[in-house]
Amino acid sequence: MTQLKNILYSLIEPLTKPETYQSLLSNLIMIVVYVVVAWIVLRFINKGIEQFFKIQNKGKKANKKRSNTLISLIQNVVSYVVWFIVLTTILSKFGISVEGIIASAGVVGLAVGFGAQTVVKDIITGFFIIFENQFDVGDYVKINSAGTTVAEGTVKAIGLRSTRINTISGELTTLPNGSMGEITNYSVTNGESIVEIPVSVEEDIDRVEEVLTKHFEAMRSKYYLFVSNPKVVGINSITRDEIVLSISAETVPGEGFSGARILRKEIHKLFKDNGIKVPQPVMVQYDSNQQNKA
Question: What is the reported pTM?
């Protein structure tokens, strides 16, 4: 009983001393100071990293996306380092031996490692994605996992553990790097827009091709995404009512679908302005009485 009283007294007795609260308040103030200073330092470092790459790549358009990727990665790593330093400093203020924690990290890491395999896999995959240049910030990609598309859109950020992708419909998807299987990057090589345009069989195809070719020459200067003038590839098919023309255009990387939409819009307007006919459905009236007479 006396031993229990001594234990309770040793726990309660420091709480009755003003020095305890003064020390606690002092430590809390120091924690706030450390956090604020770390936040300010990170802001300056991040700005410095951005300015460094901006100066390095001044006038080099081809390196901008790669620079954005490396900026994101370096800022991510610096953030981990700074907050690790802040954490160890705070622990030392409370009398917790950081050296002891680091020394025991091997034993704890072995125990936790089995449960953290996914995190380790994400980080390792993140390094391969970045250093193999599989895709950069700003690229349009499609990510498959186990044969199923899990995300398709523009890459917004690449981190050590995860990647953020802004999908076509506007959602921001965060994917663990380790979950990525097949990666299709639409922004590496030039895209291609291919559209099929039906024309009435009554039209003079040579005239239609001439009108289209002349318009395509002027259209290229109107839209930045066309690398070269769109061209009429030829006739794809002929039926009783229509002739289908195939139109092809080379675009900047990742803009193949946008180019196809622009071509359809421009050709539709061009046909209306030039009176070029498109196929119309033909209605055939069936007279049962005439068949009976026959």
Answer: 0.49
